[in-house]
Amino acid sequence: MALEDKRGKGLSFTPMGIEENSMRNGRGLSDQWADSVVVRPRTTERHITVHKRLVLGFAVSILTLIIVTAIAVLLGVRFEECAGESGTRAANGSSTKFNQSRDANFNHRDEDTQPWRQLRLPASLRPRHYDLKLSVYMDNFTFSGEVNIEFECVKPTKFIVLHADRLEVDKAVVYSENKKPGVIRIHRQFHYPSNQVYVIALHRELKPLRIYKLNITFEAQIENELLGFFRSSYVLHGERRYLAVTQFSPTHARKAFPCFDEPIYKAIFKVSLKHESSYLSLSNMPVELSVPDEDGWVTNHFFRTPRMSTYYLAWAVCNFTYKETFTDSGVAIRLYARPNAIERGSGDYALNITKKLLQFYEDYFKVKYSLPKLGSSCEGP
Questions:
Q1: Which of 186, 336, 363, 380 is the most buried (most CB within 10 A)?
Q2: Domain of 372?
Q3: Burial of 305 (0-12, 13-18, 19+ CB in 10 A)
Q4: Gyration radius (Cα) of the chain, Å
Q5: Where is the composition biased (Polar residues) (predicted)?
Q6: How many domains does the chain have?
């Protein structure tokens, strides 16, 4: 009985003990099973959320790529259309005046079709002679000019490319003096400031070994800098006076007149300077003829120079006076300076040492000085 009771109690106690232990731990078997069932859906939901974000990011990336590709295709088509229009416009010659921005849009690759884009002048033309006439206005520091350039065609070309910097070209005319003399029609003309050149495109090609002439009228400022054709000043007896002189070395003749401004292009220069008669004018060569005008102006025509590069050319318009001396070979040497500097002898040393140096070099090299005079360059104030 007791054994049965103990077994019964044992049998009845065991499940009760398990239940009591489970209850003591605050959970039952059913609760543990429920927890395991509840945890799985939460984990699955978190993974689903992460997958949605990845899919969304991937979709946005694909959409962005499609949009960028479409824009690139549209721009490419538009660029080809613009290039085609430019080529058609150039071929048909529908426009006779082109500015630099329009020329920059040309899509030619051949050097012969756009020689103005090269850093050096094309070798198609070779200058022979310049006839340069300048009118100098010292009251407002401007000058106007006309240059006639005789040149030879070396290779057939439709383009005349020469240097011109800060010059306002009024008119250009090209004509031939060969078997069929006459004016050659100009298709278009324009400045290309990037390379400091002026371009004249003709309707027909220039023929090799033939001589042509180019006439250009222009105007510009007498600049307030030590380059090209510039102005300076000094004070004499309490009065400020002005002068205009040149500094063409190495590449600044193009600031004073249109020219082939590279050392290889040598030519002969004939210079004429017109100015108020209260000034005097100087150049490389002596004055050949001085012609006074009725309005108080004077025009000095200078002798032709030897064949030389553009940066050797020089002239001045000033109120300076001078002292002179002669070498044993008869070369005249003059020193020009302010009147008060000449009076007090400030230039005597420069004048005398120049004479000695010139005589020394003539004896040493056994070569006579090629010009009839040396000087005509103004000493600074």
A1: 336
A2: 320-381
A3: buried
A4: 45
A5: 89-104
A6: 2
241 and 364 assigned to the same domain? no
| Tokens (6 digits) for 120 | 């050096």
Q: Cβ of 310: how many Cβ atoms within 10 Å?
A: 25
* Residue-by-residue DSSP string for 151-163: EEESS-EEEEEEE
Contacts of 352 (CB under 8 A, 6+ apart): 325
Same domain, 217 and 307: yes
SS3 call for 88: helix
pLDDT tens digits, 313-360: 999 999 999 999 999 989 999 999 999 999 999 989 999 999 999 999
Same structural domain for residues 184 and 132?
yes
Q: In what order do the strands lie in the sheet with 332-337?
A: 321-326, 332-337, 373-374
Q: 158 and 137 in one domain?
A: yes
Domain containing residue 254: CATH number: 2.60.40.1730
- C-alpha–C-alpha distance, residues 353 and 358, integer Å: 9
